[in-house]
Design brief:
251 residues; 8 helices; globular; 7-stranded parallel β-sheet
Length: 251
């Protein structure tokens, strides 16, 4: 087993975030978890009492990033990695029909909260020559009708990862697209996206769910977890789909 690491994980109560946390805990690592709902975080704390600290909080509040960093340093003394996994999909509206205020709210959730946490933890990650792993999306590089807010926010996240890579040579920063994963976000897409998405796109997503071909959260979750533990510096500044050959040793 690799030497135990201290890793902050956002969006950790369900889906990919929960899969990441579970993978790391089973491997003996220490985690600081956050999500809005505390129930699942408390369950993990009870199951792994010496390995888990958690904070039930809203990542869009500026103080949350500071509290997470301080929680990690108080209980575990250092930070080896930060996995920025939280995010939101809505509003799913075409640009002509959109609300700028809704776009700003989504950018707060998907980008500015990520930037805040990255900035807050960079000094600690410099000390450990640590890693920043961002959960991105295929929508960052491919456009879907009515996904403008989500896709552009994830594209900004990819570019943030690249900037950290060039500015912080002692930190390895990587963005990972998890593919079409069977999570609550996919359910939201199926239930709310039909009105504004292109019919062919909505049908394609719905068909994958009906046929059981969506990716399980544990598949990209394990890759993201392994990257947080041991991503090599030569990966820094790059974005990958979770299952590409370049990441074979993390799969």
């Amino acid at each position: 087993m690799a030497e135990p690491q201290v890793i902050i994980i956002t969006g950790a109560s369900r889906g990919i975030g929960l899969a990441i946390a579970t993978h790391l805990l089973k491997a003996g690592h220490k985690v600081v978890l956050t999500a809005r709902s505390p129930e699942k975080l408390e369950e993990l704390k009870k199951e792994y009492p010496s390995q888990v600290q958690y904070l039930a909080a809203d990542m869009t509040l500026p103080a949350t990033a500071y509290k997470l960093k301080e929680l990690a340093l108080l209980h575990f003394n250092h930070i080896n990695a930060v996995i920025i996994n939280h995010g939101a999909l809505s509003p799913m509206t075409r640009i002509a029909n959109s609300s700028i205020e809704e776009w700003k709210a989504l950018y707060d959730a998907n980008f500015f909260s990520a930037l805040t946490l990255a900035k807050e933890t960079i000094p600690s990650l410099r000390e450990t020559k640590g890693r920043l792993i961002f959960t991105s999306s295929g929508a960052a590089i491919g456009a879907y009708t009515a996904w403008g807010a989500y896709g552009t926010s994830k594209a900004a996240l990819n570019h943030l990862s690249k900037h950290i890579a060039v500015e912080e040579p002692d930190i390895t920063s990587v963005a990972i697209s998890p593919g079409r994963v069977d999570t609550d976000m996919q359910k939201e897409l199926r239930e709310k996206g039909k009105a504004e998405m292109a019919p062919k796109d909505h049908e394609a997503f719905s068909k994958e769910f009906a046929e059981g071909t969506l990716v399980r959260p544990e598949q990209p979750g394990s890759v993201i977890a392994n990257l947080a533990v041991s991503a090599k510096p030569e990966l820094s500044g790059k974005n990958f789909k979770w299952n590409v050959p370049e990441l074979a040793e993390y799969q």
